[in-house]
Batch of 2 targets.
Target 1
Amino acid sequence: PKSSAMARHNELGKAGEDFAASYLEHTGYGIIERDWRQGSRDIDIVARTEDGTTVVFVEVKTRSSDAIVRPEDAVDARKIRNLGRAADAYVKERAIWNELRFDLINIVGTAPENFRLEHIIDAFNPLLV
């Protein structure tokens, strides 16, 4: 049935986000918020750089298959625009004045034991889309 495949997909996505958040914490980022939502807009992870100067909006993409997908294919222009709108709403709601950055974390694997993570810093700029 399709629903169990969807449940597995959602579980993999959740495991990937947990893995990404853990990775960010271990590399000195502070996690501000996870799964922030406002209406249909959502942000996977909002973090702060180690020096505290930059708020980073992190999009996490988790895939079970090893097919290499370029970040620009994983996150299309529409998704980038939506992330930009979500970040704009978040910044206004939280009155944030920091520098902003958009990162992408790609995770490939079927479980945390075999996840491979790629962190692309400053992966895209919603203002340029």
Note: The radius of gyration is 15 Å.
Target 2
Amino acid sequence: MRTLVLGVGNPLMSDDGVGQRLLAELASLQPPLTGVDYVDAGTLSFLLLPRIEDCAALLVLDAARLGGAHGEVREFSGAGMDEFLKSASCSVHEIGLRDLLDAARLTETLPAWRALVGVQPDRVDWGDTLSPPVAATLPAAVALARGILERWQRDVAP
């Protein structure tokens, strides 16, 4: 099963760069997982659509407006992810993840297995470091993301 992991955000905007930080830490874990591609998606673009169309599973790592405490980490999977993305205020990006997934839905290539690991930002302003509450949640968010990938691999194993 081809799995695509997207790290979303702008690392020059403090906590908005949490997706790339999670991506780097997740990709460095041992042992590596087979069939998993790790892609720095920046602030998203429709150029990512072919990558999404070619995968069976999609995991997105991003700062998200969860309405909770700074650094809160949450998983949204399948229909729960779709429902969360319907909120116009869930993302700080101009081209949203919802737009990309809607395009994949229109071409009937929406990955059946999809999840978002979102982290509530504290600070989205110029700066290349994460705020302390967001930085403190990196280990838990990486563990959650790795658990999702391992679960997906177990569920499709022969």
Note: The longest strand covers residues 36-42.
